[in-house]
Amino acid sequence: MSNYTHILVGVDLSDEANHVIQRANALAAASKAKLSIVHVVEPLTFAYGGDIPVDLTEIQDQLQTKAVEQLRSMAKANNISSENQHVVTGQPVSEIHALADELNVDLVIVGSHGRKGLALLLGSTANGVLHGAKCDVLAVRVKD
Ligand code: AMP
Q1: Cα(93)–Cα(10) distance, rounded to whole angstroms?
Q2: Which parts of 94-135 are beta strand (E)?
Q3: How far is the CA of 52 from the centre of ligand 1 (A)?
Q4: Residue whose C-alpha is closest to residue 44's, from 17, 62, 66
Q5: Which helix (H) or strand (E) segment is 140 a member of?
Q6: Which of 10, 39, 65, 128 has CA 20 to 30 A from 107's CA?
Q7: Which atom of ligand 1 lies nearest, measured to the CA of 17?
Q8: Which is it for the CA torsion 78, 79, 84, 88, positive or negative?
Q9: Could you give all domains of the chain from N- to C-terminal order, each with its CATH number?
Q10: Do 36 and 84 touch, CB atoms closer than 8 A?
């Protein structure tokens, strides 16, 4: 069986994200694979419907800037160079799929909380990434 050549890890910038990146880093090193990381900034929905137009562009830009900084610091701590760091805007599942295709990765790594009950029925990012991915997907268990 051939080794993975390019791994993409989805990073939600939470406290657990470092654990997921470390696992991905170890696997990438063992496989001599390139490692890319992505954080998806979700678009702000309009807080007010109807007649009151609210321009959220500035806040969205601030969120984007903050996300770039946070991802950069996590990447730096894990020796991931800037050209392999991606911050995109959209829905996490579809953006992770799109970037995985664009970068032609052969493995996507995400964290999984191992949800139960209603949360399981509602689904999770890990579930969404698994369903519809064109390559292998590894779910790294993170603590609840
Ligand atoms: P969740 O289902 O939201 O608990 O997320 C599970 C995993 O999906 C996280 O550990 C990340 O690997 C990935 N993920 C969730 N949200 C994002 C995001 N906004 N950008 C990139 N990856 C994400």
Answers
A1: 9
A2: 107-112
A3: 32
A4: 62
A5: strand 136-141
A6: 65
A7: 10
A8: positive
A9: 6-141 (3.40.50.620)
A10: yes
Q: Which residues line ligand 1 (CB under 6 A)?
A: 10-12, 20, 38-40, 92, 110-113, 124-126
Burial of 16 per CB tally in 10 Å (0-12, 13-18, 19+)? middle
pTM for the model stands at 0.92
Backbone dihedral angles phi then psi of residue 117, each to the nearest 5 degrees: 60, -135
Per-residue pLDDT of the chain (144 residues; tens, 9 = 90+): 689 999 999 999 998 999 999 999 999 999 999 999 999 999 987 555 566 677 888 888 999 999 999 999 999 999 999 999 999 999 999 999 999 999 999 999 999 986 666 666 556 899 999 999 999 999 999 876
Residue nearest to atom 14 of ligand 1 (CA): 12
